[in-house]
Amino acid sequence: MAGTVTRKTTVGHRASQRGTEESPVIKWLLIAVALAFSAVFLLLPLINVFAQAFAKGLAYYHDSLWHPDSWAAIRLTLLVAAISVPLNVLFGVAAAWAIAKFEFRGKSLLITVIDLPFSVSPVVAGLMFVVLFGLQGFFGSWLDAHDLRIIYAVPGIVLATVFITFPFVARELIPVMQATGTEQEQAAMTLGANGWQTFWHVTLPSIKWGLVYGIILCNARAMGEFGAVSVVSGHITGQTDTMPLRVEKLYNEYNAPAAFAVASLLALLALLTLGVKTYMEWKQAREYERSQADSEAAKP
Amino acid sequence: MSIELRNVSKEFGPVAAVNNVSFSVKDGELMALLGPSGGGKTTVLRMIAGLEMPTSGDVFIRGQRVNDVSVQKRNIGFVFQNYALFKNMNVFKNIAFGLKIKKWNRPDIQDRICELLKLFGLEGLEKRYPHQLSGGQRQRVAIARALAPKPSVLLLDEPFGAVDAKIRQELREWLVTLHHEINVTTIFVTHDQEEALEVANRIVIFSRGLLEQVGTPREVYEQPANEFVARFIGVMNVLEAEVQGGVARLGELAFPVAGAAEGQHLRIGFRPYAVQISSDLTQYRYHAVLRHTFFLGVLLRVELELPSGLVIRARMSKEEYANQGLGDGCEVSFQIRQFRVLAQEQAALAAESDLSYQPPPVLGENI
Predict the structure, then answer these.
(1) A27 in Cβ contact with A21 (< 8 Å)
(2) Cβ distance B48 to B61 under 8 Å?
């Protein structure tokens, strides 16, 4: 475009000529250490998962995954994710909305409670539910009387997963909503929009990136959770084994290649999550850059 | 009577942001809510809009009590200080938002938007997004959006605050023109007294939640109700003088005040233009040294220092200044053509539990 001045970031080139930079040797040494660390502790294990999965060949890999018990585990994992992720989206949006837009007593308590699943050990979280809903638990006799099973059944797994993944969506949305402020919503109200219309037309579009990111993080954790689910599930093969539990079981049965085969699916999920996250960050950066350029160009 | 507030108060915890305010707005009027930051004017505006609820008192729009009417149903247009344009919608969709909510049909929306784009000089910009607009353009979109559903009142919160000074002047004139054309009852909040004087039909002046005066620009300038208004609007010399023998004195200056009790302390105020200066030391009764000259374009403001140390501000045209041969350090004689005894401001009155003597407004001539 003629007449516009594009500002390119030239940080890398200029910075090295400033006196505040360390010598290049130190810089490259630090980078080398970081790379080595990542390679040994992150990359190698990941590559090893796939290597081990295909150790006995493609046919074995295929059979391991199609084994009815493994297939049941995959289905259960998908089911649990399909229930817990939407639930947490609802909770997360509601909690973030309440925190970002309103002042009320107990607000800091709510923020602390939202972070609870992060600070609690997943095993402890699972134990919490056993104590509450197990046969000897607080609600145990009531549940038994109504013939409802939560612990050692699918509902228990869903509950534990919802608890563990609760903060992800909320924590992504709170800063985004706080940054947007309430003025746009107020403007919508002055124009006659009710609560739902305001949310749909104004709030939702402004949080879309945060929401998508929160969802994929929530999903990754929901599918990969081990500790809490392990405590509440009862490990009933073919019924209450999720994929992570199935991996453990196969490995304990000395069927390493099959274990790694199922694990490779989870690893693929991790890579996919990372890929989507990177793509979205790139898109967001591009949008931001473009809006900056447009604002500059629009100045009279 | 288009809008009326009766004894409206708004408290945030122990703080009264708005304290027992009553005033009315006439149909089609362009009214300014003026005052320093924190004075309560934005809170009053928001209570008219329905974005805040009064703690006590009543708000009436077109004769109907609207305290319990939600903001959506009040049929008002609100323009926020930072415009609050919908970032994810283009200009067309922004302006059309209110119409879509009110379920206008497509062709009517199209016509109305075209009409507004033309009126606001925004043609060709319909497809642009807020971040692609300049500050002035965004502001016009915000106003167009508020006016699209044909509200009965237009409320603007510091509409010219976020814009460059030069553009502000143009926008002020444009707002007056717009108001003439559209003739919607309009209320705007500002802390800029020049702006209020220039634009508004009537001004309501707030200070610390209290209403200090309601009047036309001329009224609040020439007959300020109290010291706060006198100091806030334009420039005012304010002195505290003691009454001795029917005359309020401070240093060399003497102001005749009828009916004032002996020994009373009065606040005396006079405008810079009321000070007449002459280089002829025998012409007027007071003497001073011209300490400093401020160049204001057409006019000059001068500071006069009296032998007692008092400093007063005077105003004169460039011609007068040149004709008298004045300059910094010159000795001059002067007189004060007009002065007022200033009443205490509402905020100070409210703070005092027992009221001391309130002097009647006295206009003195040629002292």
Answers:
(1) yes
(2) yes
Q: For A206, which residue in chain B has the nearest alpha carbon?
A: B88
Cβ–Cβ contact A286 with B under 8 A: no
Task: Supply the mean pLDDT for chain B.
Answer: 88
What backbone torsions phi and psi does residue A37 show, to the nearest 5 degrees? -55, -50
Mean pLDDT per 10-residue segment, chain A (300 residues): 47 56 85 91 88 86 87 92 94 89 84 89 91 85 83 90 92 87 90 91 88 90 92 87 91 89 89 86 80 66
Write down the domain spans for chain A. 22-53, 57-298
Task: Choose which CATH entry (1.10.3720.10, 3.10.690.10, 3.60.21.70, 1.10.10.10) describes domain A57-298.
Answer: 1.10.3720.10
> B39-63: string of b/e by CB count within 10 Å (b at 16+)?
bbbbbbbbbbbbbbebeebebbbee
Q: For B188-228, write each residue's pLDDT tens digit.
A: 999 998 899 999 999 999 998 999 999 999 999 988 888 88
Place B95 in a pLDDT band, splitting at 50, 70 and 90.
very high
**B interface test, pick of A101, A191, A206, A288 with most B CB neighbours within 10 Å:** A191
Any B CB within 8 A of A18 CB: no
Instruction: Name which of B245, B276, B261 is nearest B339 in CA terms.
Output: B276
Tell me which residue in B71, B98, B133 faces A298 most closely, judged by beta carbons.
Answer: B133
